[in-house]
Amino acid sequence: MVPSGEPGIFFGGTVNWLAYSNSGLPAIISFNLGIESYKEISQPDYGMFVKLTMCMLRDCLCIVSHSDSFNDVWLLMDYENQESWVKLIRLPYFGGDHGYYAHGPKIVYISEDDDHVLLMFKEFAKLKWVVYDCKNSTIKTIKIQDFSWVDSMVYIESLVSP
């Protein structure tokens, strides 16, 4: 397995990575800090020809599958039940160049009613922040002056103790 280059995601006493086998197939590898053991987490059926990114949303492990026409957001609702993956939302393809976010836009936040999504992606060598209105299928660009290179991380307070 080869890590995707992204940092591990801490969740419920585990650190989780998106990795790829030598044949290019994706895997989610989870390391339990308490018992110091690894396991592979089952994944939803993303379909063919998608690229993946992993993050935390709504206190759940999240996988975003990106294609040339859509971005699907999947949540693992119950970490103990690996069959509990739910496709939360399908977003359209937002374009942009794929240098910095090589796998598509970075989803920063989804409103509790699933109506609005805050995303950022690179377009023409500049970061673009947008809010996508899921009900009306409209995009509103957020203008942030002098922010051509920035990244966002979701902060999760934790005290790791085996």
UniProtKB/TrEMBL annotation:
InterPro entries: F-box-assoc_interact_dom (IPR017451). This is F-box protein interaction domain protein. The gene is 25483632.
